[in-house]
Amino acid sequence: MADYLIVDDFEGYTDNIDADETIFQTWIDGYFDGSSGSTVGYLDAPFAERGVVHGGRQSMPLHFDNSIAPYYSEAERSWFSPQDWTAYGGGSLQMQVRGRTLSGVTEYDPASETYAITGAGYNIWATSDQFHFAYKELTGDGSITVRVDGMSEELPHGDPRVGVMIRDTFDNNAANAIVFAEPDPRTRLTARVTTGGDTSSVATIDGVGTTPIWLRLTREGFVFKAARSNDGVNWMPLLDSGSEVNISMMDPVYIGLVVCSHASGQFIEGRFSNVSTTGNVAPSGPFTVSRDVGIASNPPELVYVALEDSAGRMATVKHAELATTDAWQTWEIPLADFSGVNPAAIRKMVIGVGDRSNPMPGGVGTIYIDDVRVMDTEP
Q1: pLDDT of residue 217
Q2: Class of CATH domain 4-100+298-375
Q3: What is the pLDDT of residues 60-85, one digit of tens each?
Q4: Residue 17, by phi and psi: left (phi above 0), alpha (psi -120 to 50) or beta?
């Protein structure tokens, strides 16, 4: 006799929407109604995850986007009849959770108005990119100005990218222009002028790039211009000629700060100050929202489970490390930890990423859930 009760092993879902058999028709997400930043499953069949599984042939992918209100992402499953989880002893709720490797991080110090941004990524080059991006939306013409104050002393590659970018989309092959400093020293403007096209060096100035250095990237219609300064007052083109490139981008575009280590899985830090923008840039304030581009990673977000009973009493349990663990982890929660909830009358279960009780802008990523069970703790 089994010593556990299966809550959901995710094996029974199909791709038949008409029969209400899909995973997102049982686990309700925020994709359709905007209630949160979650998407359960995939937009195209097969809707459940069939590659990253703990047992059987399917698991539930939960995609989260905490960069937008309400700054948390969750999926919920409800039962028409209350579930008695005291059967089989009913001592704990157990599930398998898998996250993805840690993403880069953007830290902003409001007192000094400075940024410390860590980023990995193999490169911003050729036909695809990997990097960390602190960004806002830009509509129409505009610019970003920054002083690159420095970067990590121990660099895994001699040609990292630490600078500013304007980018068409978050796709790894998107059109973009970036001006950055390198420790050689040299300063460069590179661009990918079409989606999926090759990246080229537009302008390179050797011997100039020792930090601190002031950089500016400007969008004027389809023209992107790179400039540099030693003092933030007197500006000059990156080169006397060849310091601009034509790129067609559709509004809104993304504008912000970039760090790429030029070494997969290895992080460096870029330090920035005197960051300013012109044009219709939103939201206002500092660059506090960031994400990895082209890297399958997760920010360090909370993962939480909430249970609600038939009387409407709800309790939540949180875990701080699961989102960035790229191997299956067993999360076992004593039912007693769901304080005040009657385990013999469960009506709703919620799985989420973020902090629902104190929502703050966060990041974007994916976690996987499998083999949700109520475990028997009786000897």
Answers
A1: 98
A2: mainly beta
A3: 999 999 989 999 999 999 999 999 99
A4: alpha
Provide long-range contacts, Cβ within 8 A and 24+ apart, for 48-53.
48/10, 48/13, 48/23, 49/368, 52/98, 52/368, 53/370
Determine the Cα–Cα distance for residues 132 and 224; give it in Å rounded to an integer.
21
Mean pLDDT across 171-178: 98
Question: Which tokens belong to 348?
Answer: 């709703």
Q: Cis check for the bond before 160: say yes or no (omega within 30 of 0).
A: no
Measuring CA to CA, which residue among 169, 159, 164 is closest to residue 117? Answer: 164
CB-based contacts of 255, cutoff 8 Å, min separation 6: 135, 136, 137, 138, 142, 144, 164, 165, 166, 167, 217, 219, 277, 281
Q: Where are the beta strands (DSSP E) in 99-220?
A: 101-102, 105-109, 114-119, 124-125, 128-129, 131-151, 161-167, 176-182, 186-192, 200-206, 213-220
The torsion angles phi and psi of 217, rounded to 5 degrees, stand at -125, 130
Q: Where does CATH 2.60.120.200 sit in the chain?
A: 105-295
Give the distance, in angstroms, between the CA of residue 151 and the centroid of all CA atoms in the same chain.
23
Q: Is the predicted pLDDT of residue 379 greater than 60, yes or no?
A: no
Alpha carbons 286 and 288: distance in angstroms, whole number:
6
Distance between start and end Cα atoms, the chain? 14
- 174 with 195: CB under 8 angstroms? yes
41 with 61: CB under 8 angstroms?
A: yes
- The per-residue pLDDT for range 332-369, each reduced to its tens digit, is 999 999 999 999 999 999 999 999 999 998 989 999 99
Q: Which fold has domain 105-295?
A: Jelly Rolls (2.60.120)
Stretch(es) of the chain classified as CATH 2.60.120.260: 4-100+298-375
Q: Which two tokens stand for residue 342?
A: 């009657």
Count other C-beta atoms under 10 Å from residue 294's C-beta.
Answer: 20
